[in-house]
Specification:
alpha+beta, Glucose Oxidase, domain 1, Arc Repressor Mutant, subunit A, globular
Length: 224
C-alpha cells in the first residue's frame, strides 16, 4: 500500500512503527514533551512514525516539539494530512522530518503497522500482511525474554515454510533496519522492549491466519 505526499522537511528513508492519532493533535495539551507520550491515548511516540490529520493549538506547540527533541523523545517522522504553519515551524525547530498533503486514507491504518517513509520521493509504503507479521514476531520475541534462536521462533518458521525464506528474511531485514532487533549469528535479540497483551497461542493463531491468506492470494489463478 502506497501513499503519496509532500515532504516539507527532512530527507532520506526512515522505517518504523506507526502511531495513528485520528484527531487534530495539540502538542501543548495532548503531548508530554519530557516523556514523548500522547496523554489522551497513553501512547508513546518515541522513535515512532506519527500519523495525524493536522495539529491544533497555540504558538507554544513548537516549543513542546523542540522539548521532545531535546530529551530524545521525538518521533522519527510526522505524517500529516494537512500541516499548518505552527506544525511546520515546530518540526524544523525540533529537526523532526515531516511530510504533509497525504490522503485521509492514511488515518485508517492501524497503530503498530510498520511503515517505510521515503522523504526524498514523498512516499509512504505500508505492507499490511508484512507489517502485521513483523508486529507478531516482535511480540513473540518479547514473550521469549527478548531473544531466541531463529529456529525456535514459530512465526518466523511459519513464514519461511509457507511464504519462502526471502519473504521471512525481508521482514527480519526491515526490523533490523528499523532498529527493533539485531541478528547475532542464529539468534534474534530485541533492541527495544516491546509490550504485548497476547499469549503465545494468540500470536501463533494470528500469524497462521495472515500467512495462509497471503499464501492463498499468491496461488489463486487470475479472474477470467
Amino acid at each position: 500500500m502506497k501513499f503519496k505526499g509532500e515532504t516539507v522537511f527532512g530527507n532520506g528513508i526512515v522505517s518504523g512503527e506507526l502511531v495513528v492519532y485520528r484527531e487534530p493533535l495539540s502538542f501543548l495539551g495532548d503531548v508530554d514533551g519530557r516523556n514523548g507520550v500522547i496523554r489522551t491515548i497513553s501512547a508513546s511516540i518515541v522513535g515512532k512514525v506519527l500519523v495525524i490529520p493536522s495539529s491544533r493549538g497555540s504558538t507554544v506547540g513548537p516549543y513542546v516539539m523542540y522539548q521532545l527533541s531535546k530529551y530524545g523523545k521525538a518521533p522519527l517522522v510526522i505524517l500529516s494530512v494537512k500541516a499548518d504553519t505552527m506544525l511546520i515551524i515546530g518540526a524544523v525547530m525540533a529537526q523532526i522530518p515531516i511530510m504533509t498533503n497525504l490522503p485521509r486514507d492514511i488515518l485508517n491504518l492501524s497503530s503498530g503497522a510498520i511503515a517505510r517513509v521515503d522523504l526524498d520521493r514523498g512516499e509512504v509504503y505500508v505492507n499490511e500482511p508484512e507489517a502485521r507479521l513483523a508486529l507478531l514476531l516482535l511480540e513473540e520475541l518479547e514473550l521469549r525474554n527478548g531473544k531466541a534462536k531463529l529456529k525456535y521462533l514459530k512465526v518466523y518458521r511459519m513464514m519461511t515454510y509457507w511464504l519462502g525464506p526471502s519473504y521471512a528474511k525481508a521482514i527480519l531485514d526491515r526490523l533490523v533496519s528499523s532498529g527493533y532487533i539485531v541478528i547475532k549469528g542464529d539468534r534474534a535479540e530485541l533492541i527495544r522492549r516491546f509490550k504485548t497483551n497476547k499469549n503465545h497461542s494468540q500470536i501463533y493463531r494470528g500469524a497462521r491466519e495472515i500467512i495462509i491468506n497471503a499464501y492463498l492470494s499468491t496461488q489463486r489463478p487470475p479472474n477470467k
